[in-house]
Design brief:
Layout (H helix, E strand, L loop, with lengths): L1 H19 L22 E6 L4 E5 L10 H6 L4 E7 L16 H15 L5 E5 L1 H12 L6 E5 L5 H4 L4 H14 L3 H15 L10 H13 L13 E7 L5 H11 L7 E6 L5 H4 L1 H13 L1
Parallel strand pairs: 2-3, 2-4, 4-5, 5-6, 6-7
Antiparallel strand pairs: 1-3
Helix pairs in contact: 3-4, 6-8
């Protein structure tokens, strides 16, 4: 009742104003539509856990499942598990043509903004490490910290060669993927290094070839000085006799980022999280806690 009396009094008070003032035209503008939710086309994401945000990026041809053991063993974080389109059975979608690595990095930056993530930690293995470096260097305000697992700023240096030395092989691989016979050859090479995969988990040879070609030409050495976030580099030393030279190679590769923290894992191959899971998880815990 009191509310009705107040509304009536306001109506009387406003009568004189409305009588002398022109009646405003009715608004015909439609209410703005909400912006559509961002849907990445170059990768998909599975989110697990709760806590500070951590984005996990797998390497060339790899599945996000490679992180399952790590996620289970290091709880207390909200993990965003990336699956690059065209790898491990994921349809190529946005990666069906053109470059792969740099556009995926740019779209992950878009994902961080769209989801409102507050400077997440970025962890990338192999090609995923290259993407982590790109994110940290090219989008410094979005990255809280970054970990690169077994990858150099110049990926060609990972196989002990220069960009020029790998370019020919990469261009041959890219050309082969354009023909049916060449695609079968590329598939054979992938099986040689990654094992035979069931049909629904195979990587697209064309996406693999273009990503490999792109990696052969990338050199992020000059970008390291742009990285403001703390950087940890975990690298494998499979042979004790060559461990010192591997350390020298990584120290030289990351010299431009003087505060980079280098962590060597002995007796491990490229898949550090599988070959030495306990030591990798310890390194990850220390990285996330820093």
């Amino acid at each position: 009742m009191r509310n009705l009396i107040l509304l009536g009094a306001l109506g009387v008070a406003l009568t004189g104003i409305s009588a002398s003032a022109p009646t405003p035209a009715a608004s015909t503008a439609a209410a703005p539509k909400p912006a559509p939710a961002f849907k990445p086309t170059r990768f998909s994401v599975v989110v697990r856990g709760t806590g500070p945000d951590v984005i996990l990026i797998p390497g060339l041809t790899a599945s996000r499942d490679m992180w399952n053991g790590t996620v289970a063993a290091v709880p207390g974080y909200r993990y965003h598990l990336i699956q690059v389109a065209g790898f491990a059975g994921e349809p190529a979608r946005g990666n069906a043509s053109g470059q792969v690595v740099a556009p995926v990095a740019a779209e992950i930056a878009h994902y961080i903004r769209a989801r409102g993530l507050n400077r997440p930690a970025i962890v990338g293995h192999s090609m995923g490490g290259t993407i982590a470096l790109m994110l940290a260097a090219r989008h410094p305000s979005l990255v809280g910290k970054a970990m690169v697992v077994d990858m150099l700023p110049q990926p060609a240096g990972f196989v002990g060669s220069t960009t020029a030395g790998v370019r020919g092989l990469a261009e041959t691989l890219k050309g082969l993927s354009a023909t049916p016979g060449g695609r079968r050859l590329v598939e054979g090479v992938m099986e040689m290094f990654g094992g035979t995969q069931p049909p629904d988990r195979r990587s697209d040879p064309d996406v693999v070839a273009r990503a490999t070609h792109e990696l052969a030409l990338i050199d992020l050495t000059s970008d390291l000085s742009k990285i403001k976030a703390p950087l940890t580099v975990v690298y494998a030393a499979p042979d004790p006799q060559t461990a010192a030279s591997v350390t020298q190679r990584y120290a030289a590769g990351y010299r431009a980022k003087r505060d980079a923290r280098l962590v060597r894992v002995d007796a491990s191959g490229h898949m550090v999280m599988h070959d030495q899971p306990a030591r990798f998880r310890t390194a990850l815990k220390e990285f996330l806690a820093r």
